[in-house]
Design goal:
This protein is mostly helical. It has one domain. 70% of the residues lie in helices and 3% in strands. The protein is built from 9 helices and 2 strands. Strands 1-2 form a two-stranded antiparallel ribbon. Strand 1 and strand 2 form a beta hairpin. The protein is globular. The N terminus is likely disordered.
Length: 231
Amino acid sequence: MNSEQENETEDEICDNEDIINPFQKSTHSFLFEDRIKLNNGKIRRVGFWDKVLALLIIILQIFLYIYLGILFYKDVEEDQVPVTVTHERCQNSTVEVDIEPFLSCEANESEDTIRFVLVIAVFICFLIPDIVESCTLFSGNIRMKIVAMLVLFEVFIAITAGVFGTMSGLKVGPINALFSCIGIIFIHDVDEKFRQAVESTQNSFRVLIIYFTAVIIMVVLAIVVKFVWDS
């Protein structure tokens, strides 16, 4: 009887090891986990700076989503479309000619609707993992529920920014709409990139120091380059 119980216990342990925790490749897991499993198989305790890093990243992502969303919204509100002319006419720009008959613009509402749906459908594919993993957290403790609501709020802001970005990009063309969404996807992957950095250094405080040092160096370099260029 005891041997059967031991076998059942061993099976349960093996099953638990196969369970994939939500946000395993993201810093989001630092906010609700006490211990995390690293890529090398070691178990590491989640410390104070891990949680600080995870919270700062979510705040940064939400801020960038809102900032881009506002920029895209302002562009949509302007209700202007670019007007183009053929390359052949541009080559003759030194000659005074009437180019107005050759100007053209894209403003096909039916085509824009189809393109809008296609771009948003592709864009949301990158957000689906966050939505699904957040929903699984609602079955956990209070910390998991809070993180789930926070991440879903972040996803909502990202989708809103993506909608305005797509609308803004479609005024130029479908390629620009995709580029707008790609910018938002880059922001969406920030937490995973920082998780990789933590996995490498195993020290969130060191990652923060390296990040802010790199930002300061880039800002100073940009100021110097601009000063030299203007002078």
